Amino acid sequence: MPPRPAKRLSTLALLRTVATNSLAVCDEELFDKLFVARRYVAHPVFFVSDPAAIKEVLIDRFDNYPRVTSIRRLFETDLRTGTLASEGETWRRHRRVATPTIDPRAIRPDVPALIALAEQTADQIAAADPSVPIDIERWVGGLSTLLWNQVVTGGDPAGIPILRWLSKVPHKPRSIDLIPKPAWLAERLVHHRRDPALPLLDAQLHAMIEARQAEGYAGSQDLLWRLAHARDRQTGDLLPRDEVRDEAASLIAGGAASVRALTWIWYLLALHPEVEARFHAELDAAMPGRAPEPDDLTRLPYTRRVLDEVMRLYPPIPAILRQAAAKDELCGHRVPRGAFVAVMPWIVHRHRKLWTDPDRFDPERFTEANSAGRPRFSYIPFAVGPRVCIGASFAMTQMLSVIAVLGRRFRFRLASDGPVVPFGGISLQPKGGLPVRVERR
């Protein structure tokens, strides 16, 4: 756990802290009250954890709560018109086109290849010196890139540098990025952070898309191919060529952040041997002495509950920031036009009014019986509503594939007694990685 201030931070302390770890600005009051109104730099900020109000912000009136412009510009530099960087009709058009290209039916043919790639990584881990710790975050990060590349490009090695570039989009927000400012200044500040390698990688991405648009293309019908040929279900139109590139970049960038639970699950299992034992027993029963098969992933209910609980404690998207386009009312409080509204899964998932003993790791929270009385929007690991993570289904398939492969073959033990501190930027990761020792099962 990062330090949790007993009282709210001053504006200066908040801006200084958020630049190093955004989670460390979350003080105790935010975990006790479902709606907290504050002002920073004379600007109103509302922290919303009430499930009914979350529904109003992210679903019922989501058009009134677009993303904060200064944060959106961090995506816009590299993603342009992609769904992670756009608003309004451009976003709606891209969303209609992109959604079918990454839904469960579209990615189902890739699952055997995903499992095979995970097995190759497991072989490499097994061949390493067991006395030398490995950084499991680096290993699963590299594996995630390979898996995502399989879906995006059909496994073309030329896609790897592109995925690595887009996995870093956007750059971690700085304090100044969170302060309201004129558009010309915001653009200048973002311009200074542009990657000098962007033109070459961008050209490579364009070339890969153009190859899939050519009449004689005989390669796999991967995500890039599907985007290049997908039509808007309302108009029947294809995306323009440049916008295919933008949406491809947006989907690639979003996929990198959504699988952070692949690191945190091994941390939590190492700390809770009784859960780990039950997890391993389920894998052994479902896959006795053999590698996973695609259908096995649907027969792992306890593993799925473990993963849900991991994402409760360490949500892939720790903070969702919005800005009121027009005045409104939430939880009986007036929300003026321009106010910032923060829905933070990091807070919502650990809120004392929504969860019993919220900092405790307990997969049994997600049994059907225990879930029955819980408010629907108290658990939002991939956000919710029209802007729910477009790749959430793929992320779950990818994570279950990796967990089944690695969990069947290994136990991971923490290599250090030192604290593991969650680092909150756009996604959630352990500061300094996660060194573990590998035990073969």
Search tags:
441 residues; Cytochrome p450; four-stranded mixed sheet; three-stranded antiparallel sheet; 18 helices; 45% helix; globular
Your description of this structure?
The protein has a domain at 73-84 and 94-161 and 182-313 and 385-409: Cytochrome p450, CATH 1.10.630. It contains 18 helices and 11 strands. The protein starts with 10 loop residues before the first helix and ends with a strand. The longest helix has 18 residues, at 136-153. Helices cover 45% and strands 10% of the residues. Strands 1-2-7-4 form a 4-stranded mixed sheet. The protein has a 3-stranded antiparallel sheet with strand order 3-11-8. Strand 1 (35-40) and strand 2 form a beta hairpin. The model has no long low-confidence stretch (mean pLDDT 93). Helix 6 (111-127) packs parallel to helix 18 (392-409) and helix 8 packs across helix 10 (198-213). It is globular and about 60 Å long. By secondary structure, it is of the alpha+beta class.
End-to-end Cα distance: 30 Å
Q: Categorize the overall geometry.
A: globular
By DSSP (H or I, 4+ residues per run), the number of helices equals 18
Helix content: 40-55%
CATH superfamily of the domain at 73-84 and 94-161 and 182-313 and 385-409: Cytochrome P450
* CATH topology (fold) name of the domain at 73-84 and 94-161 and 182-313 and 385-409: Cytochrome p450
The main pleated sheet reads as:
4 strands, mixed
How many strand units?
11
Highest CATH level, the class of the domain at 73-84 and 94-161 and 182-313 and 385-409: Mainly Alpha
Could you tell me the radius of gyration in angstroms? Answer: 22 Å
Encode the helix/strand succession as letters. HEEHHHHHEHHHHHHHHHEEEEHHHEEEE
Low-confidence stretches at least 5 residues in length (pLDDT < 50)? none
CATH architecture of the domain at 73-84 and 94-161 and 182-313 and 385-409: Orthogonal Bundle
Strand content: 5-15%
Strand order of the largest sheet: 1-2-7-4
Structural category: alpha+beta
Nearest-integer average pLDDT: 93
InterPro entries: Cyt_P450 (IPR001128), Cyt_P450_E_grp-I (IPR002401), Cyt_P450_sf (IPR036396)
Organism: Methylobacterium trifolii
Protein name: Cytochrome P450 132
Keywords: Membrane, Signal, Transmembrane, Transmembrane helix
